[in-house]
Amino acid sequence: MSPFFVMSLLFGLIFGQTASLCAPSEYTIHVEKQECAYCLAINTTICAGFCMTRDSNGKKLLLKSALSQNVCTYKEMLYRSALIPGCPHHTLPYYSYPVALSCKCGKCNTDYSDCVRERVRTNYCTKPQKLCNL
């Protein structure tokens, strides 16, 4: 084995395990209300990416502090509101959504994050679409 290969392998093992790839990522949310005529496509940023997780087969032998289940979550965020077009006067036409300013690897907070990763396809429009770039 060449010294370059060995050094590359060691570098990857040392720094690859500690580096996370958690950062704000562009995302499009599709929002519609039954009473409104249009679906609104909102471009925003969410936290997405890889966070290092340690989970051992010997859970009973280790302290809880040795185990971590980190997720990519919000460090700083703000909420914006968008007006859904085509709503009747008796309907609240506003939709509030989060905008990720910065992200971190940490424990999942169910107050503002969905901590379960299920593949349910619900981010689509059934009505004519309007685009909102805020």
Question: How would you explain this protein's 3D organization?
Answer:
- The protein is built from one helix and five strands; from the N terminus they run H-E-E-E-E-E.
- With 134 residues, the protein is mainly beta.
- It has a domain at 19-53 and 65-113: Cystine-knot cytokines (Cystine Knot Cytokines, subunit B, Ribbon).
- A three-stranded mixed sheet has the order 1-2-5, with no helix packed on it. A two-stranded antiparallel ribbon has the order 3-4.
- One of its GO terms (biological process) is G protein-coupled receptor signaling pathway.
- This is Thyrotropin subunit beta.
- Belongs to the glycoprotein hormones subunit beta family.
- GO terms for molecular function: hormone activity.
What's the short version?
The chain contains one helix and five strands.
Oligomer: single chain
Task: Spell the H/E element sequence.
Answer: HEEEEE
How would a crystallographer describe the biggest sheet? 3 strands, mixed
Nearest-angstrom radius of gyration?
A: 21 Å
CATH topology description of the domain at 19-53 and 65-113 = Cystine Knot Cytokines, subunit B
Structural class call reads mainly beta
CATH homologous group name of the domain at 19-53 and 65-113:
Cystine-knot cytokines
Indicate the CATH architecture of the domain at 19-53 and 65-113: Ribbon
Q: Given the C-alpha coordinates, what overall shape results?
A: elongated
Mean pLDDT, nearest integer?
Answer: 76
Low-confidence stretches: 9-18
Proportion of residues in helical segments? 10-25%
Number of strands: 5
Largest sheet: spatial strand order: 1-2-5
Query: CATH class of the domain at 19-53 and 65-113, anyone?
Result: Mainly Beta
Q: How many individual helices?
A: 1
Distance between the termini: 54 Å
Strand residue content = 35-45%
